[in-house]
Give the backbone structure.
Amino acid sequence: MKTPKKISQDVRSGLPDNLGSIWRFALALSGDATVADDLTQSTCLRAIEKAGQFRVGTNLTAWLLTICRSIWLNQLRAQKIRITQSLDVTPENLLCDMQPEIETHIFAAQVFSQVMQLPEAQRETVLLVYVEGFGYREAAGILDIPIGTVMSRLATARRKLADLAKETSERPVEARTR
Amino acid sequence: MTYTDDVLRSYLAGEVTAQQSADIEAAVIGDSALEARLLALDPMADRVRQAFAALPDPSRLAGIMDRAHVVGQSAPGAFPVFGKLSLVAASFVGLLVGLCLYGWFATTPSKAADWQEQVAAYQMLYVPATVAAITPSPDALTEQFKVAAALIDLDLEQGALSALPELTLKRAQVLGFRDAPLVQIAFSAPDGTPIAFCIYRPNDGLAQADLQMSELSGLRTAGWSTQTHGFLLIGGTDPGPIQDVGTHLFGLFKT
């Protein structure tokens, strides 16, 4: 059986490998890359502080994302709404790093943009299941919602994303690159 | 009930009735295999995953690990969490400043035992790539030392630290712990291992202590303190370099 000190060390040493997942989830929650930076860092520090509460044998990534969401909901979400008056996303700001030089990148940027324009609840669910690879059950645990809600959120998101894909495919490439 | 792949694909495409959707969603609750099939058949998963594949940029993550809360420049909570980062950072040339945690630390006190535990926790997030990417100009490095020395009220011996044969000097930055300055001087070992020499000046002084080799969070350390400053060299798992460099630094900073 692991000692609390060993568990704490395991959590700390697992953080670097999970930074990308935390950041992407933080982005999905906040819709803002700068806020995602802040949220990621605070998640790491909170995880270190609470490392003794991690249950051995459970999924570290899921535990970290639960912390991330808790910080977002309890500390930052209201602040962001107060400052920006909304949780609307401006994906153009985030896309500049993606450098859509070839067709596949253009398409990826368009899908990314559309995902980021989904409502927060759908965005976080899509991120967990499609990007981070969690099952419906695991995503439901992280989001603290019924599994049926996860599936219905995904169904709605799929409809919206499919509409976009259809619109995109009907437009000529030249128009998409402008 | 068993669902064929065609039915599941129709569900994923939104081409079934509301009742069929509800039936499938109810069935998934008690059927992990059905859940796995749906996940595997979902055509949207690959598309979305590829859209996020380039995010985040690795340099962005390195930057996140570098951020910390600023010390004593304002009352707790005086800075909004968002939107001020670039403005404040610009006012401290060469000084890495992160404001995001300042208010949180003020309202949620850390339960860590002491400053060395916090340093170790922070150092644990460093990987070779973190310090490899740091390449300040000589002028920038000098400015960093100047700012850090002023805040910690100590000559940081930039010349001696630049000339350590075992380590490459990378950066000096000011962090903080319990409203007191904490300077972190980052080095890279020949094999890329990140090493940090940290100096803390608590407001209420310290008990003097001689050089002591130890381990924190799995990292080797060499620590000592004067009546005004605490010192900790930390990094890697090999005790040899930390002992050698620690002994040298103890000679420089023991009074």
Notes: Chain B touches chain A through 51 residues (CB under 8 Å). Residues 58-253 of chain B form one domain. The longest helix of chain B spans residues 138-152.
